Amino acid sequence: MSGDSKWTWSQQGAKLLRIVSHLGQRYLAGSLPNRCLLCHQSLNAKEAGFCQVCLQTGLYHSPICLGCGKSMSLELEYCGECQRHQPRKVIAPCSYHQGFGPWIAAIKYQGQLAALPILCQALVARIGQLEQQEFITLPQAIVPVPLHPNRLRQRGFNQAWLIAHELSKQLSLPLACDGLIRRQDTRPQAGLNGTQRRRNLQDAFELNADFAYQRIALVDDVVTTGTTVAEIARLFEARHIQVQIWCLARAEAPGLLDDVN
Q1: Residue 252, CA distances (Å) to 121, 170, 248, 255 in order
Q2: Mean pLDDT in residue range 192-217
Q3: Taking the model in full, what pTM does it have?
Q4: Tens-digit pLDDT profile for residues 126-166
Q5: Torsional class of 55: left (φ above 0), alpha (ψ -120 to 50), beta (otherwise)
Q6: Which of 61, 92, 199, 210 has the fewest C-beta atoms under 10 angstroms from its C-beta?
Q7: What are phi and psi of 222, to 5 degrees?
Q8: Any idea what DSSP says for residue 214?
């Protein structure tokens, strides 16, 4: 058998294993008691992922600056510091550091999707709240942060696409996946400092010339330093396309969520 044939069979075998594993996980999940991922209390038939007590405990409890993620005492778009330059708005229902972080990481690194639907529901509720307050306007389309084809083959899925697809269904907004592509198979951002992150992503993405929308939400699982979404947002903004950032959680800088006096 030629080397190319062996490689083809290897790819097909790996794909088959992923399918069998996914089906097995779904069967196992369906046969187990429906319990909260955090407190392990039984959930009713309409609940999944987290019970309402744990969900509400993990969500933001005070107004949050849409720029830096700082806790505020008043419902405003930006804190005093961010008012000066009004950065891109990052919309998230919770902090990565306050309970849900391990389950969001499990979506990306382990393919465990139990928490995804309910966290998407929490994000949709947050979006609705901000829209009602006239802090944001709903976008025309939802754009997931893309993976390079090599990374997509290795992982088997793009967590940003899964989140964006769920949000698209819940909000009845189109999912725009074809206009933005990842040209370079960059190193993982985890473990890199700010300068290394920016250098790592330089020219990593490309936006098609015929992208049709003028107002979009860019979706990722978590926003940490914001380097990835900023690199992508600049491509859209260069064409005068308005960008919001939507994510399941925000990993803000230390101290920003300290109690507001």
Answers
A1: 21, 26, 13, 9
A2: 79
A3: 0.82
A4: 999 999 999 999 999 999 999 988 888 888 999 999 999 99
A5: alpha
A6: 210
A7: -140, 145
A8: S
CA distances from 190 to 63, 68, 222, 224, 228 (A): 28, 20, 12, 10, 12
Closest alpha carbon to 258 in 57, 72, 74, 68: 72
Q: Which amino acid is at 60?
A: Y
Question: pLDDT of 49-106, one tens digit each?
Answer: 899 999 999 999 999 999 999 999 999 999 999 999 999 999 999 999 988 999 999 9
Q: Which two tokens stand for residue 254?
A: 């230390």
For the chain, report the end-to-end CA distance as a whole number of angstroms: 71
Q: Which two tokens stand for residue 32?
A: 């187990």
Residue 188: predicted pLDDT: 62
**Cα–Cα distance, 3 to 181 (Å, whole number):** 30
DSSP of 88-141: --EE-SBBIIIIIHHHHHHHHHH---TTHHHHHHHHHHHHHHHHHTTS----SE
d(CA 139, CA 165): 15
- CA geometry: angle 214, 218, 224, nearest 5 deg: 145
